[in-house]
């Protein structure tokens, strides 16, 4: 399956990989509390190159639970918050690696590669918790600013 195309204004839109196009944190918070649609999950999976099992694991849920959510069409608020965590890391990685389709490919690869700055764990493994996700963001910031990581 070919990688999805990136919107031209990725740097200015929160949650673009979810298809949200939120322009303020308040808008994003409201959408998280309402619960993302299953289409948002599908978009992130497509953008970040995650299969259903990987997405469920990082979101702290099961494939069966996601199947039940498909029937209602919506994720719960906590699940949406965890999904946004994945989207946020993917979007930041794309930004750090150049903000284009090539950068998106590099971001997908980087998220799955063990990183010295994370104790040789993968960023996706770290992203299972918010604390771990913040460490991944810190590593991406160091990479962005040229600090040995």
Automatic annotation (TrEMBL):
InterPro entries: Antitox_Xre (IPR011979), Xre-like_HTH (IPR046847), Xre/MbcA/ParS-like_toxin-bd (IPR024467). Transmembrane segments: none annotated. Coiled coil: none annotated. It comes from the Bacteria. Residues 27-88 form the Antitoxin Xre-like helix-turn-helix domain. Pfam families: Xre-like-HTH, Xre_MbcA_ParS_C. Residues 93-146 form the Antitoxin Xre/MbcA/ParS-like toxin-binding domain. NCBIfam families: TAS_TIGR02293 (TIGR02293). This is Antitoxin Xre/MbcA/ParS toxin-binding domain-containing protein. It comes from Rubrivirga litoralis.
């Amino acid at each position: 399956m070919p990688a999805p195309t990136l919107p031209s204004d990725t740097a200015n839109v929160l949650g673009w990989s979810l298809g949200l196009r939120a322009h303020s944190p308040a808008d994003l918070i409201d959408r998280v509390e309402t619960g993302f649609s299953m289409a948002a999950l599908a978009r992130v999976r497509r953008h970040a190159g995650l299969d259903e099992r990987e997405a469920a694991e990082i979101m702290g849920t099961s494939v069966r639970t996601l199947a039940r959510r498909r029937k209602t069409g919506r994720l719960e608020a906590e699940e949406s918050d965890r999904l946004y965590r994945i989207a946020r890391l993917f979007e930041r990685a794309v930004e750090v690696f150049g903000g284009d389709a090539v950068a998106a490919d590099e971001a997908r690869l980087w998220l799955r590669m063990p990183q010295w700055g994370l104790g040789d764990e993968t960023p996706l493994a770290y992203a299972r918790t918010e604390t771990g996700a913040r460490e991944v963001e810190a590593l991406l910031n160091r990479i962005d600013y040229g600090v040995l990581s």
